[in-house]
Inverse folding.
């Protein structure tokens, strides 16, 4: 295949042409005839009993059509929003899952929780009517702080405390005894700050119902429309799957927050039938702050044991994870299976034990946000390793190197249930050290000092597990869905190719990358391959895009389907060339036998116009595949941050950032670099700027861009990014996934740099000027 | 109220409620949905358009303030309507640079970024990594990490200067 558009080429994205000319199709851009507008009634209190709700005045507003409350959805038998992963406590009991009705019925449990929907002819009328709904609340004392939630009185009636589960992994006794005999033990208390995802496109839904056919159609901002349909059909019971089409058109970023099935699109879809008109709802940014699932929010105590030579002997982590008021779609899995399993990092630590208390609080639900559990794990491992190096007077790079899993240790089984298939951590570290000019750091530090700045350098050698797999194991561990992906490759009669994938892009450029993959595999021109996604009406099934899985799992499904195309094409070609299939080879888009040659296009045509055709073969050239990975993929890399701290103001400037990542084979390096850049900015945001804060009453004090500090262009430097390659051993493309690495590795590197500059381990994320200034002033 | 304004070269006379925001007028009345709304506190820049050549946040301007003035949105830059042939040649150099440098991912911030960046270049100050970063301070991108956006603006700056020579 042409190297300009095939695997490995920095092909310019085909989706860009519509985005740069303002012709994107985001959900809120879509309009249908007869459309009405929805506005949600949201709880002003963190915890309160709902009393009478009086909509009389609201319905007097001109254009007001209906007001629905939780009592209406309950009366109609709408099911609860389910949590898709059943985590078990260490005593074997199931997690305590609080019922999560789409609209609160008797009690609200976080500020912003929806308890009603107002529908009107216009947005202005809906807003005006919403103002006039009179609802009585009886305020209750909320539980807010993560660390204290477990002991506080239960927020949900019927649960005995606020503990959703007490989960563990690893050998506790062995870990404790290794810590007891260690030559040195480093102890660290860490907080992983609550983040608010803030995809720039707010969530939205446009639902229609056709009474003649009984068909619903929901267009919404989803990373996985098929999962949305599955939940709305099987759990909420709005309509069976064949009567419900979910379309996710262009989606303006997600970072996890658009994986989940939320109350809003659920209720809007249900209400469209009630009102008999299409309903559109688009979140305002302030609603997004209140009601999008948040990320992170862990409190952890960690201990790392070292022997006299500096080898790690044991790691122990005790984590309390704030799950919010309800278990969001995958909220239970994030601080357990996606966190505890990653605590080996890149090291041969022989004994590891982790315990996670998942707690309920009167705050927005917490779920996967870019990295999901793995940034939290990396933060624990890489912060404590750096601190141990400092405490024992070792170079942090040398301590890491001493403990790293070596290239010939693979496959490597960790004490926390994973088998790493391949990697070369030393290679990434070496390259990063070179690019960061580690040797020249002392000089740069001295130069900074002359300008009244303290300079620090910090490292983070992270590992992540992507392409969540395999289905059977995950389901055994509590997952409610499979973790495969589907793909279909359809060679049209004239030889162009339509590709259907269950993955769904929300900025990743699948229309380009997946076309490169199929064009390369089938030897057809890139421009002849079209990618279709995000529509349950067109794509058979899919699990969507999250966990850096799309290429490793979805791309692999397309390879399997393409291989079936080649196999069938081989039989057709053999018949046409009057030879045996075993005599036919497929090369660069053509079936070849001796000096005979038939292009895929010719074979495709013959399959649809079967004049000279194998008698035992069905016509047509379209194949489907489901790909179920046999293991996770394990991207890994080395990140190095350099910061300058202004002694007078406490401002931390990130001045240099090097990321060397091993994503296995790379399909489109331009897109991969972009993914890393974006992840790094989000990681820098977590380390230095972003913090979702609730006050003691459970009010979100960081509910807008005035209080929640988003990374802006002048907060981050140019990034130096590079890669090393050890191909994944168990998927056909040898790819690992690149979407989350930037956000996983960078916070630890940056905080390690800040603590290096300040000479104290006691810096919490985000390292705001105020906090740093207080430290510098000894306050 | 009655309102007359020019949008992307075409004159419009409309009757709108006095409290209509410019962004509402563009998105819901004129169906120019390339201008986006990313916040409700005037801080993300997704709604940036040109009003008489200056970048403004259309969520913070009343439609009434555009009375008798000329608005340019993302749909109106590049080769003028009517002379386009659907090829990349239709693009404004800033649009082309965004694509060439992979300065967009989900594309939601992109129209606002492009219109702000065009003004930044057209205003004629020094363009370097630092001034571009400071100049884009009012536009949030959650996807791209700014690295390639800065690269694109600098590249387009060169191309636009070349063009005006
Ligand atoms: S929508 Fe105008 S600044 Fe955010
Ligand atoms: S490209 Fe998605 S917000 Fe900028």
């Amino acid at each position: 295949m042409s190297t300009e558009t095939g695997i490995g080429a920095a092909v310019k994205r085909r989706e860009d042409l519509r985005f740069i000319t303002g012709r994107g199709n985001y959900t809120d851009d879509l309009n249908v005839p007869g459309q009405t507008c929805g506005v949600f009634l949201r709880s002003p209190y963190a915890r309160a009993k709902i009393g009478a709700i009086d909509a009389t005045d609201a319905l007097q507003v001109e254009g007001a059509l209906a007001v629905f409350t939780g009592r209406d959805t309950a009366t109609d038998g709408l099911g609860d929003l389910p949590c898709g992963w059943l985590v078990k406590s260490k005593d074997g009991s199931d997690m305590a899952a609080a019922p999560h009705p789409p609209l609160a019925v008797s009690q609200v449990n976080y500020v912003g929780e929806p308890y009603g929907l107002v529908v009107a002819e216009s947005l202005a009328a809906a807003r005006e009517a919403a103002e006039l709904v009179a609802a009585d609340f009886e305020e209750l004392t909320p539980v807010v702080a993560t660390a204290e939630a477990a002991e506080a009185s239960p927020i949900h009636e019927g649960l005995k405390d606020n503990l959703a589960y007490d989960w563990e992994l690893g050998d506790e006794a062995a870990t404790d005894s290794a810590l007891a005999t260690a030559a040195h033990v480093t102890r660290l208390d860490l907080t992983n700050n609550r983040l608010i995802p803030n995809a720039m496109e707010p969530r939205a839904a446009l639902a229609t119902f056709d009474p003649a056919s009984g068909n619903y159609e929901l267009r919404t901002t989803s990373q996985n429309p098929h999962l949305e349909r599955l939940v709305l059909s099987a759990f909420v019971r709005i309509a069976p799957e064949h009567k419900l089409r979910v379309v996710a058109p262009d989606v303006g970023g997600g970072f996890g927050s658009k994986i989940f099935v939320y109350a809003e699109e659920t209720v809007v879809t249900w209400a469209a039938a009630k009102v008999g008109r299409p309903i559109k709802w688009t979140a305002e940014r302030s609603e997004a702050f209140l009601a999008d699932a948040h990320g992170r929010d862990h409190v952890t105590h960690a201990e790392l044991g070292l022997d006299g030579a500096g080898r790690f002997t044991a790691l122990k982590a005790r984590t309390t994870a704030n799950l919010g008021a309800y278990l969001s779609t995958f909220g239970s899995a994030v601080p357990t299976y996606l966190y505890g399993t990653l605590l080996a990092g890149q090291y041969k630590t022989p004994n590891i034990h982790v315990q996670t208390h998942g707690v309920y609080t009167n705050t927005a639900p917490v779920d996967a946000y870019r990295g999901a559990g793995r940034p939290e794990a990396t933060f624990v491992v890489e912060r404590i390793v750096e601190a141990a190096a400092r405490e024992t007077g070792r170079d942090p790079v040398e301590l890491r190197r001493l403990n790293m899993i070596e290239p010939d240790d693979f496959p490597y089984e960790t004490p926390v249930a994973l088998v790493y298939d391949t990697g070369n951590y030393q290679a990434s570290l070496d390259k990063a050290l070179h690019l960061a000019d580690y040797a020249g750091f002392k000089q740069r530090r001295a130069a900074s000092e002359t300008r009244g700045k303290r300079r620090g350098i910090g490292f983070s050698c992270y590992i992540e597990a992507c392409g969540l797999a395999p289905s059977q194991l995950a389901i055994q561990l509590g997952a409610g869905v499979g973790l495969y992906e589907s793909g279909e490759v359809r060679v049209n009669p004239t030889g162009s190719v339509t590709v259907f994938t269950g993955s769904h892009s929300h900025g990743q450029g699948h229309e380009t990358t997946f076309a490169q993959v199929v064009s390369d595999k089938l030897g057809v021109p890139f421009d002849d391959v079209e990618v279709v996604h995000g529509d349950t009406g067109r794509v058979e099934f899919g699990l969507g895009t999250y966990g850096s899985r799309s290429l490793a799992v979805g791309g692999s499904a397309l390879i399997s389907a393409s291989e079936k195309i080649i196999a069938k094409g081989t039989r057709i070609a053999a018949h046409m060339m009057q030879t045996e299939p075993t005599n036919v080879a497929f090369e660069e888009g053509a079936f070849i036998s001796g000096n005979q040659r038939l292009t895929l296009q010719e074979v495709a045509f013959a399959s649809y116009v079967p004049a000279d055709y194998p008698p035992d073969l069905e016509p047509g050239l379209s194949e489907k595949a489901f790909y179920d990975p046999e293991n996770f993929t394990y991207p890994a890399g080395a990140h190095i941050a350099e910061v300058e701290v202004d002694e007078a103001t406490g401002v931390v400037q990130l001045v240099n950032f090097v990321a060397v990542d091993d994503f296995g084979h790379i399909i489109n390096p331009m897109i991969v670099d972009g993914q890393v850049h974006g992840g790094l900015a989000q990681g820098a945001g977590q380390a230095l700027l972003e913090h979702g804060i609730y006050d003691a009453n459970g009010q979100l004090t960081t509910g807008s861009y005035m209080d929640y500090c988003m990374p802006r262009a002048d907060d981050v430097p140019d990034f130096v990014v590079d890669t090393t390659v050890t191909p994944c051993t168990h998927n056909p493309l040898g790819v690992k996934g690149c979407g989350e690495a930037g956000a996983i590795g960078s916070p630890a590197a940056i905080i390690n740099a800040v603590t290096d500059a300040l000479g104290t381990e006691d810096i919490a994320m985000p390292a705001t000027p105020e906090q740093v200034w207080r430290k510098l002033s000894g306050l | 109220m009655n309102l007359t304004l020019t949008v992307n070269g075409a004159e419009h006379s409309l009757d709108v409620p006095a409290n209509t925001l410019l962004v509402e007028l563009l998105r819901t009345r004129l169906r120019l949905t390339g201008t986006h709304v990313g916040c409700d506190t005037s801080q993300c820049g997704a709604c940036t358009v040109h009003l008489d050549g200056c970048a403004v946040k259309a969520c913070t301007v009343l439609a009434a303030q555009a009375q008798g003035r000329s608005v340019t949105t993302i749909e109106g830059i590049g080769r003028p309507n009517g002379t386009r042939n659907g090829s990349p040649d239709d693009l404004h150099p800033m649009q082309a640079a965004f694509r060439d440098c992979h300065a967009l991912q989900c594309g939601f911030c992109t129209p606002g970024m492009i219109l702000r960046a065009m003004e930044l270049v057209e205003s004629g100050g020094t363009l370097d990594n630092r001034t571009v970063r400071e100049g884009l301070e009012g536009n949030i991108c959650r996807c791209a990490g700014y690295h390639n956006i800065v690269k694109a603006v600098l590249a387009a700056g060169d191309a636009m200067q070349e063009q005006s020579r």
